Structures are given as structure tokens and as C-alpha cells.
Write a sequence for this structure.
């Protein structure tokens, strides 16, 4: 089988045919396999056997049990849905720490390639199936688009398709009939092909993989709740409907007795019926009973399930007694902590199994896994604009210097790209679109006297000079700036630029001369304004 020079996560060359065909395509028995339903007739002893079998590497029954629990218990399904959908967020690919220009460009390209994956948000949701069941395996099928390797499909595979082996309890393998030799003895199943799977292991608790599933903490409350629901249904059947008693005379025939029995049934279902003359139907009062005990058990089970899944109960239901807004906010903060933990684990998996795979196949990560761009689900919540608009100016005036990028990130305000239109303060105008236009634009004509404390125009022009001059004379920026600030006359500027002329292009010379003339003009205007202000002050004295 042909191999490539592309190395997989294990450092070994990958086999190129494995990219074109999913690994499970050769395992038809898994595709045709019908799942059983362990919850049918589930008892404590049977449940214990299922859990013990999982600890011995047989995961089939345990994960079929988990599927039934999520399907049949509406409370578990609702709470798990809340937790899983909280992880479906906006995302991006960021370069590694201290990235150079090539790594930043690679991160941008990877982000563009990942956007081509169909139903990407659904894939993230499938990945979160590991929260309840311990792990989730999504199979990758690749194809080439314009010469680049891109996932064609990412398909969730049932957890029951995989197995664990004694001595390899942290290694997931496809459940097959093959046995491979190892130092620790025979190993069942086929290893997962590199770049063929996204394998997300979610740790609800520390320990072996088969015992880290969140649903293992819910199985007993599920069983107890099922018993209580069944007992409640039987209670309502016995005590919820009045008992109907039919009386017949001693001389009644079997035919008459049967007629009376049919009449009793008809009265119960149709509220109407007929009986022979001389017979009697009496309605007895329903026997006394209290269903509160069953409801208390059901309520306890559901609260326990909410605590396990969401970390509290006040984000899923309120009893109107102990529930308060403050307690609800506290429980919601706990829920956010769980969300942040889920997102952190998902980011690690998607970086390792998806971003690294796409980057390696397309030559976008020469530094290997250590320098691969990072996948990020953006769980950062936006800050209140009103609070920040009041606090930030005060902090800046006190000397705090927050980066502009940090402010944009916290407030969720994107940075304008290129010549994209932006909102401006009332009465202000947008900056010139190009450096040449900014350098040659006529300045506003000042009126009145100079404002005390204002920097001289040459100093005001220095930042604009640096920004506008860089595209045209980047090599000569320092020399031109020094020349303009040192010159005493226009002739000095002209002679200084002539000295630089042999190494400058005509366009560079024109741009530099335009900026220099503008700076000299502004300096002259400032001197005139200063003289006028001094004369006015002297006259008044």
C-alpha cells in the first residue's frame, strides 16, 4: 500500500488510500448491526451486569443503555440538550503564540478551508455527544478541492462500534473479529487510522475511559425514576377510577352474568350501558391513597439528574419557594463554568484531530503539531457596552493603557477591514483613504488665536507624517523627518532632498517634497499665530 511523506499524529507516514475511503466502509457487519434496548425489563441486577461488562472492555450494552436513557427520559434529554447546545458557538482559527507572518497566513488559510466543511455546527454538536457518553468518534472522509485536501463528510459513529481491551483501556478500537499480537498479549479490534477520525474523549471524572461517562452517574436515578413512574401509573389505575360493582340475582344464568359484565365495561369506557331488569350496578368511592410519595421520588431523581448535568437545579426549574433570582444567577455561573470546560476540551480535540490533519495534508504546518494553529470556540461573553463606555475613559485618564484589540474583543465589536465604512463622531470626517491624498490634502485654515497647551503643528504632524510617508519612502523615513525638523528655510529642505535624490525614485521624491512643504507651511502658520497672540497680549497690557 502506497505511503506518503506526510506524517500522522503518531509520527509515522500515513497511507494515502486511507484518505479516500472511510475505514468503516470495509466493516459491513457494523453497518447492518441492529441495536438492542437494555432498558426493556431493566432491573438492578441486570444494570450491574451491564456496568461490569463495560469495565471488562465490552462497551456495547452500556452505550445502548445510554442511548435508551437519552431517548426515553425527557428530563435527561432536555438537560443534556441545554449543555450540548451551549457549546455550539462562533469559532475561528488563531495562530500559535509568537507566530511569524507565515504562521499567521497559515492560520487564515486553515480557517477558510474549515468553512468549506458542510454542516460544521452540526459536527460540533455531534462532538459534544462525548459529554454524556464519555467519548464520541466522528469519521472523516476526504476529497480534493482545487488541489487541496478537505473533509468531504464528518460522520458520527455509534459508541457501540468501538471496544476497549484489558491492558489498553484508554485505546479505542473498531470492534472487529481481528486479533493482533502485542507485548501484553492479543489485542481485539482494528486501530483507528490516522487522519481518519476525530476522537473526542470527555472527562466527566478521572479514571478509566469506560467509567468516565457522565451517564454512568445517571443510570441509577434513571432506574429508580422508572420504578416510581410505573408505580404511579399502577396507583392511578387502581385508585384513580371508582370501582363498579354489578349485582345479579341468584337465579341469573351464565348468559345474564356475561351481559352484566359487558354492561360494567361499557359504563366504564362509554359512560352508558344497559342491563337486564332485576340487576344492579353500584359505584363505590375510590379507595384512599396518596400519590405524593411517588411524585417525591420522581422529583428527587430529576433534581439529582439536573445537578449532575448542569451543576444545579435553578437553571432548569423553579419551585417558587426556595428559588430566588440571586440563587438562579449563582447556578447559572456554575453552568457557565461547565460550558467553558466543555469548550476547552473540544478545542483541544479539534485542534489535534481536525486542524492538524487539514494543515498537514496541505503543507500548512511546517513546525509540526507543536506549532499548529489553534481551533477556538468563542465562549467569551460580550461585556456591557454601557458599563465599558463609562469606565474605559476614566481608566484611560488615570493612566491605564489597554490594547485596542483587547477592547474590541471584550465588546464584540469587529475591527474595520481596509476601506470599510465606519461610524464616526458627529461633526467629524473620515480620514483620507490613501497616503498620497492625505499628504497632499489642504489643511483646515485656523481661525482666532492658538489654543493654550496645544502642541506646535510640526509636532502634531509627526504621527501623520510617519503614517503617510511610510508607503512611499519607507527607506528614507528617518532621513526626511530629520531634514524637515532641522531645516530653517525652504532652501534647506530643497538642498537636503537633492542630496537624497540619487537614491530616490521620482514618485518618492514628489511624495516627500509634498509632505515637507506641508509641514513647513504649518510651521509658518504657527509662528504667525504666535506673533499675533503676543501682539494682542502686549496691546491689552
Amino acid at each position: 500500500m502506497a505511503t506518503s511523506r506526510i506524517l500522522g499524529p503518531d509520527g509515522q507516514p500515513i497511507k494515502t488510500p486511507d484518505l479516500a475511503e472511510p475505514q468503516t466502509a470495509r466493516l459491513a457487519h457494523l453497518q447492518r448491526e441492529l441495536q438492542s434496548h437494555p432498558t426493556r425489563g431493566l432491573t438492578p441486577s441486570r444494570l450491574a451486569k451491564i456496568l461490569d461488562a463495560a469495565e471488562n472492555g465490552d462497551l456495547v450494552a452500556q452505550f445502548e443503555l445510554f442511548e435508551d436513557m437519552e431517548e426515553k427520559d425527557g428530563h435527561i434529554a432536555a438537560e443534556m440538550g441545554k449543555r450540548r447546545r451551549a457549546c455550539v458557538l462562533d469559532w475561528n482559527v488563531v495562530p500559535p503564540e509568537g507566530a511569524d507572518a507565515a504562521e499567521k497566513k497559515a492560520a487564515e488559510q486553515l480557517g477558510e478551508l474549515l468553512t468549506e466543511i458542510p454542516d460544521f455546527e452540526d459536527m460540533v454538536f455531534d462532538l459534544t455527544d462525548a459529554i454524556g457518553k464519555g467519548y464520541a468518534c466522528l469519521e472523516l472522509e476526504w476529497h480534493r478541492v482545487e488541489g487541496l485536501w478537505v473533509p468531504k463528510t464528518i460522520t458520527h459513529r455509534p459508541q457501540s462500534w468501538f471496544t476497549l481491551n484489558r491492558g489498553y483501556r484508554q485505546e479505542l478500537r473498531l470492534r472487529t473479529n481481528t486479533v493482533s499480537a502485542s507485548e501484553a498479549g492479543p489485542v481485539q479490534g482494528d486501530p483507528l487510522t490516522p487522519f481518519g477520525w476525530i476522537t473526542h474523549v470527555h472527562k466527566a471524572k478521572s479514571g478509566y475511559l469506560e467509567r468516565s461517562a457522565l451517564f454512568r452517574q445517571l443510570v441509577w436515578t434513571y432506574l429508580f425514576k422508572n420504578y416510581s413512574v410505573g408505580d404511579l401509573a399502577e396507583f392511578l389505575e387502581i385508585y384513580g377510577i371508582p370501582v363498579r360493582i354489578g349485582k345479579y340475582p341468584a337465579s341469573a344464568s351464565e348468559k345474564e352474568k356475561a351481559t352484566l359484565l359487558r354492561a360494567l365495561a361499557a359504563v366504564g369506557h362509554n359512560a352508558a350501558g344497559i342491563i337486564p331488569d332485576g340487576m344492579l350496578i353500584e359505584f363505590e368511592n375510590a379507595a384512599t391513597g396518596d400519590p405524593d410519595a411517588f411524585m417525591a421520588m420522581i422529583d428527587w431523581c430529576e433534581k439529582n439528574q439536573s445537578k449532575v448535568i448542569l451543576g444545579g437545579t435553578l437553571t432548569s426549574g423553579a419551585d417558587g419557594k426556595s428559588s430566588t433570582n440571586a440563587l438562579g444567577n449563582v447556578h447559572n455561573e456554575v453552568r457557565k463554568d461547565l460550558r467553558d470546560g466543555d469548550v476547552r476540551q473540544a478545542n483541544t480535540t479539534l485542534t489535534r484531530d481536525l486542524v492538524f490533519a487539514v494543515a498537514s495534508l496541505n503543507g500548512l504546518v511546517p513546525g509540526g503539531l507543536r506549532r499548529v494553529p489553534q481551533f477556538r470556540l468563542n465562549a467569551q461573553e460580550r461585556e456591557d457596552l454601557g458599563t465599558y463606555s463609562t469606565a474605559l475613559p476614566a481608566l484611560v485618564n488615570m493612566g491605564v493603557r489597554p490594547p485596542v484589540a483587547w477592547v474590541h474583543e471584550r465588546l464584540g465589536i469587529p475591527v474595520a477591514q481596509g476601506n470599510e465604512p465606519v461610524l464616526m463622531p458627529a461633526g467629524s470626517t473620515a480620514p483620507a483613504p490613501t497616503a498620497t491624498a492625505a499628504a497632499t490634502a489642504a489643511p483646515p485654515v485656523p481661525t482666532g488665536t492658538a489654543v493654550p497647551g496645544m502642541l506646535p503643528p510640526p509636532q502634531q504632524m509627526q504621527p501623520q507624517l510617519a503614517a503617510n510617508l511610510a508607503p512611499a519612502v519607507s527607506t528614507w523615513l528617518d532621513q526626511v523627518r530629520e531634514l524637515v525638523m532641522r531645516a530653517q528655510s525652504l532652501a534647506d529642505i530643497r538642498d537636503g532632498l537633492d542630496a537624497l535624490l540619487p537614491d530616490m525614485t521620482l514618485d518618492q521624491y514628489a511624495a516627500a517634497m509634498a509632505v515637507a512643504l506641508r509641514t513647513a507651511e504649518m510651521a509658518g502658520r504657527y509662528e504667525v499665530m504666535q506673533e499675533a497672540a503676543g501682539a494682542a497680549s502686549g496691546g491689552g497690557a
